[in-house]
Amino acid sequence: MEKESASGVRKEKIRKSALLLLSLNKEDAAKVLSKLDDSMIEEII
How far, in Å, CA of 31 to CA of 5, rounded? Predict the structure, then answer.
């Protein structure tokens, strides 16, 4: 049960991160994405 809850929290954080990126202009979004590694970007997409 705890693992499912942690997974749900992680999915919610990823969803919020994606929404935040969408709210940024292109330049700011590019700066944020340049700081992430490939696996983090794949999770957001």
Answer: 31
Q: Express each pLDDT in 4-42 by its tens digit.
A: 688 899 899 989 999 999 999 999 999 998 998 898 888
The count of structural domains within the chain is: 1
> Are residues 42 and 30 in contact, defined by beta-carbon separation less than 8 angstroms?
no
Query: Which two three-digit tokens encode residue 23?
Result: 């709210």
Q: What is the pLDDT of residue 43?
A: 83
* Cα–Cα distance measured from residue 26 to residue 9, given in angstroms and rounded to the nearest whole number: 27
Q: Amino acid identity, residue 34?
A: S
CA distance 11 to 7: 6
The residue range of the domain holding 14 is 2-44
